[in-house]
């Protein structure tokens, strides 16, 4: 395997070489859908402070325009593998498919290699590194894992991009979708996680992830020039832009890379008293998710973190620098 420039830089720079993983992570994402997951995956695997223990390709909503096939999770794996090949990291991480369908209800888990991977990693006793499950789509796999083996619930932290705004602290955007996009991928799984589990949950709802705005000017000046990887990522986004224009949609001059906060809140935690200290959250009682995908107040819900303000400058500047070092 050819060593990346980032790896070579680490070997000659004593301070950088000293960086060791502080956390274990498993990324679960619909890589066959919105390309923001591919940007987040690139950032994650270039971050030396996390030990990537698995990558899961997950399904979309059955009616999603990105992929209306019956093999959405399998297609997501293929797309992630394509990216890892560009990064010269093929076969470096376990890469498995989740279920191609949503849960039938909030108490019946699906079976998949992804569920087995989560349970196996969460059940390890040979490491003290905390485990984060990073979900940038639906919650099918983590919900199914906890339903299958409830003992793992207190052994992981779930970081989830998804869910609508909390109306006491945020206002929905104009013409907002209801249910929220990621929650709507598998409402039953969201109900299993919120209503029935005791998972430690860090949530980045829609008003949070919509802050991760990348201007096209930076796509072309900070990402596209950065070797094969930068060109690959830019081409994916530009191809999507051309497809969207066929439907007379005007996205302006920016794109939301809504899954990238998964990296910000893990790999980029503070040096001392490790925590995502440059981003802001509130503690809220975990709400109940109703059958329509909305929140219902639950006075007895466990406390969850709801991230309100994200350090987008840190997140994107780190991403740009790592792309340049990996060129």
From TrEMBL:
Hydrolase among keywords: yes
GO cellular-component term (any): cytosol
GO annotation terms (biological process): purine nucleoside catabolic process
Gene Ontology MF terms in the entry: purine nucleosidase activity
InterPro entries, A to Z: Inosine/uridine_hydrolase_dom, IUNH, Ribo_hydro-like
Keywords from the UniProt entry: Glycosidase, Hydrolase
Record has Hydrolase as a keyword: yes
Residue span(s) of domain Inosine/uridine-preferring nucleoside hydrolase: 25-259
Top-level lineage group: Bacteria
Name the UniProt record assigns to this protein: Nucleoside hydrolase
Organism for this UniProt entry: Mucilaginibacter celer
Taxonomy of the source species: Bacteria, Pseudomonadati, Bacteroidota, Sphingobacteriia, Sphingobacteriales
């Amino acid at each position: 395997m050819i060593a990346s420039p980032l790896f070579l830089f680490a070997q000659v720079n004593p301070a950088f070489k000293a960086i060791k993983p502080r956390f274990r992570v498993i990324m679960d994402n619909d890589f066959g859908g919105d390309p923001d997951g591919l940007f987040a995956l690139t950032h994650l695997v270039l971050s030396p402070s996390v030990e990537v223990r698995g990558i899961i390709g997950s399904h979309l909503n059955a009616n999603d325009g990105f992929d209306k096939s019956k093999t959405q999770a399998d297609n997501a794996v293929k797309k992630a593998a394509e990216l890892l090949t560009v990064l010269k990291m093929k076969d470096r991480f376990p890469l498995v498919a989740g279920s191609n369908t949503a849960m039938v209800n909030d108490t019946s888990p699906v079976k998949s290699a992804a569920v087995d991977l989560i349970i196996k990693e969460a059940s390890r006793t040979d490491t003290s590194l905390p485990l984060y499950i990073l979900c940038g789509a639906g919650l099918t796999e983590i919900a199914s894992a906890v339903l299958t083996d409830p003992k793992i619930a207190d052994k992981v932290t779930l970081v989830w991009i998804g869910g609508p705004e909390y109306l006491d602290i945020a206002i929905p955007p104009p013409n907002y979708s209801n249910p929220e996009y990621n929650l709507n991928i598998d409402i039953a799984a969201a109900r299993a996680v919120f209503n029935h589990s005791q998972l430690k949950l860090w949530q980045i709802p829609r008003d949070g992830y919509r802050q991760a705005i990348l201007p096209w000017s930076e796509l072309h000046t900070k990402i596209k020039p950065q070797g094969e990887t930068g060109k690959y990522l830019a081409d994916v986004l530009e191809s999507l832009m051309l497809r969207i224009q066929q439907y007379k949609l005007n996205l302006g001059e920016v794109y939301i890379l809504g899954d990238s906060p998964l990296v910000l809140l893990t790999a980029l935690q503070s040096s001392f008293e490790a925590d995502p200290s440059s981003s802001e959250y509130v503690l809220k009682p975990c709400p109940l998710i109703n059958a329509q995908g909305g929140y219902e107040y639950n006075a007895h819900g466990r406390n969850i973190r709801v991230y309100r303000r994200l350090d987008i400058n840190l997140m994107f500047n780190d991403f740009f620098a790592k792309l340049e070092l990996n060129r």
